[in-house]
């Protein structure tokens, strides 16, 4: 079993879910406990896997979106992802389920899944890309008429979406971005340099996961976010870019780095904005 690769991909999926999306193992209680324990103790930065409690069952899990009739169930074959060709017996098993789904709707979903499975074949994290780049966005689009997810491929440009309702140029904005990790010294130096050049106040939380918060004038924050998005990331999410009332926060200046999620929550609390991270599960139930 390619356990390390599977744990990396499951962790990536969990970290990429937005509020209202959920991940659940669909296994007998003892098997679910084994996988939950492995995933909880797994650290992608370490080369050594956590101690195995015994034989590890095949992973099977569901991903759902709140108020959506359709949900997805995925099973990793034993040798996934080493032998995961779409036509192979070791390809991931992806099913679509839900209440009140017509036969035609089910067939359309199955055809869409098969098409996208072929597209992601050969990528490093095919199930992650299938779910987070294709299935969940389509689920939101079909259910709500709008896709609230910002994908790595830039299918939805949040900044462009906001361009028709910009306040005056002197308005202050803030932005929150998250990623699977933030380790690269080059990225960290770039964030520091851009924050200085653009008079951005904020911080970066390094390690797993990565968190970036930026505050400044609208023009500068949008340029900062565009610079961040131009770099190569794993599971980068622009959580929001929006106007902000500075209030008593004008004393918060400079750029800081943190290593712990608790420090992020404390800094946002100091700024009077802790709800922006806790409502997304940062520092509460983990980064979703």
Word description of this protein:
The protein has 288 residues and is of the alpha+beta class. Helix content is 38%, strand content 19%. The chain has nine helices and nine strands. Strands 8-5-7-6-9 form a five-stranded mixed β-sheet. It is globular, with a radius of gyration of 20 Å.
Strand order of the largest sheet: 8-5-7-6-9
Q: DSSP helix count?
A: 9
Tell me the fraction of residues in β-strands, as a range.
15-25%
State the total count of DSSP E strands: 9
Low-confidence parts: 144-160, 162-168
Envelope shape: globular
Overall mean confidence score, pLDDT: 79
Structure class: alpha+beta
Rg over CA atoms, rounded to whole Å, is 20 Å
Kindly list the characteristics that best describe this protein.
288 residues, alpha+beta, four-stranded antiparallel β-sheet, 9 strands, globular
């Amino acid at each position: 079993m390619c356990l390390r690769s599977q744990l990396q991909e499951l962790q990536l999926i969990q970290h990429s879910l937005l509020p209202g999306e959920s991940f659940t193992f669909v296994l007998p209680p003892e098997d679910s406990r084994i996988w939950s324990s492995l995933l909880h103790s797994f650290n992608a930065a370490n080369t050594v896997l956590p101690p195995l409690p015994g034989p590890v069952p095949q992973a099977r899990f569901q991903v759902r979106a709140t108020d959506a009739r359709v949900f997805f169930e995925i099973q990793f074959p034993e040798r996934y992802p080493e032998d995961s060709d779409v036509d192979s017996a070791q390809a991931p098993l992806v099913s679509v389920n839900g209440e009140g789904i017509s036969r035609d709707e089910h067939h359309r979903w199955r055809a869409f899944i098969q098409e996208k499975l072929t597209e992601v074949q050969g990528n490093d994290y095919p199930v992650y890309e299938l779910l987070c780049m294709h299935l969940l966005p389509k689920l939101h689009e079909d259910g709500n008429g709008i896709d609230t997810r910002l994908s790595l491929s830039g299918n939805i440009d949040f900044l462009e979406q906001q361009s028709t309702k910009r306040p005056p140029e002197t308005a202050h904005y803030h932005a929150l971005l998250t990623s699977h990790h933030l380790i690269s010294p080059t990225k960290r130096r770039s964030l520091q340099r851009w924050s200085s050049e653009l008079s951005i106040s904020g911080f970066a939380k390094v390690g797993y996961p990565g968190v970036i918060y930026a505050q400044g004038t609208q023009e500068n924050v949008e340029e900062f976010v565009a610079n961040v998005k131009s770099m190569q990331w794993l599971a980068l999410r622009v959580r929001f870019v929006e106007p902000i009332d500075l209030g008593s926060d004008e004393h918060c200046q400079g750029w800081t780095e943190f290593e712990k999620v608790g420090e992020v929550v404390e800094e946002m609390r100091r700024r009077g904005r802790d709800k922006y991270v806790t409502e997304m599960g940062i520092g509460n139930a983990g980064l979703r």
